[in-house]
Amino acid sequence: AGIPMDVPWAELAPEHQRLVIEGEKRFPGVRGFFQYLDRKKYKLHVRVFISRYRGYSTCSDCGGARLRREAQQVRIAGKNICEICAMTVEEAGKFFDELVKGISSTGEGAGGSKTRSAALRREEAEIGERLLEEITSRLRFLNDVGLEYLALDRLTSTLSGGEAQRIQLATSLGSRLVGTLYVLDEPSIGLHSRDTHRLIKILHGLRDLGNTVLVVEHDPDVMHASDQILDLGPGAGEHGGRVIATGTYDEIQRMPASLTGRYLAKNVHIQVPVKRRKPGRQQVTIRGARVHNLKNIDVTIPMGMLVAITGVSGSGKSTLLHDVLFRGLSTLKAGQSPHPVSPNGGQTRMGHPVSFVIEGDEWIDDVILVDQSPIGRTPRSNPVTYIKAFDGIRELFAGTPEAHKRGFGPGHFSFNVPGGRCETCQGDGTVVVEMQFLADVELICEECKGARFKPEVLEVRYRGKSIHDVLNMTVREAMHHFANAPKVADKLRMLDEVGLGYLRLGQSATTLSGGEAQRVKLAAHLQPATSATRGLAGKQPKRRMLYIFDEPTTGLHFDDISKLLSAFRRLIEAGGSILLIEHNLEVIKTADWVIDLGPEGGERGGYVLGEGPPETDHTKEHATIAATVCRIFTLLFPLRTRHAAVMVLLLSAVSLSAQSKPAQSKPAQSARKTVRHHQVEEPDPVSAKINQAEDDIGKQDYAAAESLLKEAVAEMPENYSAWYDLGYVYHATGRRDDSIAAYRKSIASKPDIFETNLNLGLALAEAGQPDAEQFLRAATKLTPVSGPATGQKRAWIALGHVIQSSKQDEAASAYQQAALADPTDPEPHLLAGAALEKQHAAEAEKEYRQALALQPQSLDALAALTNLYMRQKRFGDAETLLRQLVGLHPDDAAAHLQLGRMLAISGKNNGAIAELESGLKLDPGDRDAQRDLAELYSDAGKFADAERLYASLVVAYPNDPNIHEGLGRAFLRQKKYPEAQRELERTVQLKPDFGPAYGDLAVAANENKNYPLAIQSVDMRAKYMPEIPMTYFLRATAYDHLQDVKSAARYYHQFLAVAGGKFPDQEWQARHRLIAIEPKK
Which of 66, 247, 378, 657 has the maximum number of C-beta atoms within 10 A of its C-beta? Predict the structure, then answer.
């Protein structure tokens, strides 16, 4: 066929490309090859192979046009409907403008000499005149809102939120409504600063028609163009919701209460970095990128920096980051080819060849795309589950004495699994009532009243709060509540640091905006980054992560942007690199490196206009000219130009010197290839390949190892070692199913290898397959190649984990076998104890004590044994262990506080006070511990100390009802009834369902002779708590003082009926009052 073998695919003639794909005569072509493989799909390895090349393909009949050939035969001015729909808005506008001009220039007679080639015939013009006016008008509106680069047949699912909103705006412009209220939520999203004035012009046009335009916006240009500004705040969430300032742009700047005004007036601003990071040799280079509208560009991205990709909408930014860099690096890291394969012979729908090369991927360990997609698609998902903080919270609740007493584990505090959740609503808090032909109605669950958990679970409290109370806390409140639990508090702190401190822990993920969802993802990545920065990962090196963000400032205020930039700095300090698409100048000015694409959107975009730091490095003359180029070609800053020829073509007055960078070579990869070629000369080629592959695995070069191992198994399919190594590579690169298949082949060749059985069992267990137990049991009967004790221990522990849910006793035996295999490790004893604890408490205690004997200072062993004792109500033994824990860790505030609470449960108030005071010296900010101590002071008669501590708590936490309630009870004990009434009234204002507070308030009101308040308080208490004898007595005495003798007598009788001699003084008073007020018989 004469197909040249030294020409790149993208440069082959179309006929040659067709021959390669379709084949000819004896050559089946690529399509024929896969048709042959399709007949072999019953083989697992064939299915795995085919899956890598499966994807969407263009219809061979219509060529992607989606219409039959008959429909494509109808043409207007030489174009069919498919060709017109493939045009951009700008191209279509010109096409239809030509038609309109053709109509106006056509002579009276058909076919006159003045008729243009693109013009319609007279009868066609008469039919289409009104339609053309409507079409050109709507295309002009789309062009006016900055969407001239969009193709008419672009799928709506591929549009950004800003693009979709601007299309709706264009529709509104076309309707020409009057007297309408338009509400727009950040219409400038995705709009370049150059085009903001076009949006403002449209908004003014809607206003001038007689409409009201209400815009939610953070863009200062839109604010400046508005007639009136309403600034809400002062904070977010429950800290906001108030109008802070209202006025014109100039008036807002002069209002010090407005944070927005201070930013607009430049009194507060985001600082430009004093010193920017300099590019080093660690760089990722993209060469020859030709995807969508990218024009064969070369881009170098320095690592370890904040790099911003800028340019007008449609200039190719998303294509460069998503379709080229992210997908390319992801496939490289998976050990595959980074080049995307287009199904229609290397051409995209726009007709551009699809090709690029990525170099320098060895400088990063992983690439992560942090976009604005939802973090969860069901109401059960929430921020605290996404960042993995809820696991720690559930463990804390499961570790409380009450949870141990009731036998509750962490699963009981989850609303996703049966056990502790309300089964009526299955943990949703709401039930859906189907309304047949009407929309479904969602109602609060009557069983749990929206609390999502069973009543007995809600009775378990951690530091005074139930699990439902915790889920209703804001992130900032929860940080203080869990201050003594770093595992939880550190994760929550990440949410606060990205500006999400106002979110509630249990807030449904479906209610989060795109910007909030993106920041939740950022917080999830900040946690490991923070750990790496602080050195919590031991001697492990920092992971070199590349984080990609797509307009992360969407929906953010100036102050939130400042917090976001701080989070970015921490990611970079932890060894990461940040690459983002951005239009916000506040972010761009802080970037270390800027890459600007343009000069326009669509077909006129796709060039690199410049790359470098935001500051200029040209002469003053060039800097002045570059400022003009900024306005024309979207150069946000006068950058070092890479494609000067393009700019000369568009504006001949500009002449900037191009600066090229030397290509970064990859010596490590070249060296690996050289070694591999030399190894071919070994006597046994298969063994040589396996040895080389194992060397590559040791270097974590899994792509090279996989290639060699595939060659080895192709040459020697029964080689168990090659299949084992290939299974290991698949598992290391996240391909679990392929890993299982490879391990099975290795076992089929040689079934008595310990490592193969163990790894296959672990992979099957991870996949949840039932035959995992079979292979793990087989591993326990085999001898490891190296480290027999450690290997056997791993096998027994893995077997125990797999069978524990269904065979607890056998799991405990497996853990005990692990302990025999390695008698020096306490972990198997702890696992065995946990498995035995529910059914065989004595044996569990024995296992825990063995673990403690092996490692006397083990916090896990001490905690497990303490929890066992508390479950058995052996408070004395638990106290002994806690004192041992305090002795081992005297500076651990949590240990002192837990011991103090244990002593309080045992009634040892003086010892409890001493331990709580010691704990608070180490951690003065623990609110719950302060409240516990104040209550103990009150119980012990130390009223001055109690009042002092409560008073300081009220100042620090004025809206905490528990503190006001504690202070009120302290006043009651001192018979300071007016002060007690004041604090208790404040308590029920803050928490209207606080039942015990109403009872105390009734006592204080009764003593203050405020009898109506006393009756009202007792009635309110009865709404939330069962009646007790004293509530009847309080009602009776209050009604008695109000001279309502009938009600008083009724309640005196009810009191006497239930008192049972437990309240002799009150019973004597009730009998004598009844004699006095009831009529004599």
Answer: 247
Dist CA 387 CA 521 (whole Å): 8
**Interacting residues of 194 by C-beta distance below 8 A, sequence separation 6+:** 312, 631, 634
Tokens (6 digits) for 441: 């109605």
Q: Are residues 521 and 586 in the same domain?
A: yes
Among the listed residues 238, 483, 488, 496, the one whose alpha carbon sits nearest the alpha carbon of residue 385 = 488
Separation between Cα atoms, residue 706 and residue 661, nearest integer Å? 33
Residue with tokens 């008192």: 1059
Please state the φ and ψ torsions of residue 1009, each to the nearest 5 degrees: 60, 25
The verdict on 576 and 620 lying in the same domain is: yes
Choosing from 581, 607, 627, the residue where a domain stops is: 627
Token pair belonging to 369: 């795309």
CB 392 within 8 A of CB 478: no
- Provide the pairing of β-strand 212-216 with 181-185: parallel
Instruction: Specify the pLDDT at position 678.
Output: 28
Q: How many domains does the chain have?
A: 5
Q: What is the pLDDT of residue 466?
A: 92
Give the type of residue at 305. M
Phi, psi of 517 (to 5 degrees): -60, -40
In tens, the pLDDT along 1027-1046 reads: 888 888 888 888 988 888 88
Is the peptide bond between 8 and the residue preceding it cis, with omega within 30 degrees of 0?
A: no
Phi, psi for 358 (deg, rounded to 5): -115, 130
Whole-number pLDDT of residue 661 = 31
- The predicted pLDDT at position 105 comes to 58
364 in the same domain as 392: no
Positions in the chain short of pLDDT 50 = 107-117, 337-353, 532-540, 616-683, 1081
Which alpha helices (DSSP H) does 574-719 contain, by range? 585-588, 620-633, 644-650, 667-679, 685-698, 702-715
Contact yes or no for 105/125 (Cβ under 8 A): no
Q: Are 420 and 569 in a shared domain?
A: no
Residue at 259 is within a domain: no
The position carrying tokens 């974590």 is: 700
Same domain, 399 and 369: no
State the burial class of residue 939 (Cβ atoms within 10 Å of its Cβ: 0-12, 13-18, 19+): middle
User: Do 449 and 573 belong together in one domain?
Assistant: no
Can the peptide bond before residue 234 be classed as cis, meaning omega within 30 degrees of 0? yes
Token pair for 682: 């070994």
The predicted structure's pLDDT at residue 438: 66
Structure tokens of 35?
A: 């048709």
In-domain check, residue 1037:
yes
What DSSP state is assigned to residue 277?
P
668 exposure class (CB count in 10 Å sphere: 0-12, 13-18, 19+): exposed
CA dist., res. 541 & res. 535, Å (int): 9
Angle at 987 between CA 984 and CA 989, to 5 degrees: 115
- Classify residue 642: in a domain, yes or no: no
Domain CATH for 558: 3.40.50.300
The pLDDT assigned to 787 comes to 57
What is the reported pLDDT for 962?
86
- Upper half-sphere CA count for residue 946 (Cβ side, 13 Å): 23
Cβ–Cβ < 8 Å for 944, 960: no
Residues 595 and 522 both lie in one domain: yes
**Helices 909-922, 927-939: crossing angle, 10 deg rounding:** 150
Beta bridge partners of 732: none
CATH number for the domain including 444? 1.20.1580.10
Task: Provide the pLDDT for residue 284.
Answer: 92
In a domain, 487, yes or no: yes
Residues 403 and 481 both lie in one domain? yes
The model's pLDDT over 831-876, given as tens digits with 9 standing for 90+, comes to 888 888 878 888 888 888 888 888 776 767 877 887 788 778 787 8
Domain around 446: 377-511
| DSSP string over 189-205 | TT--GGGHHHHHHHHHH
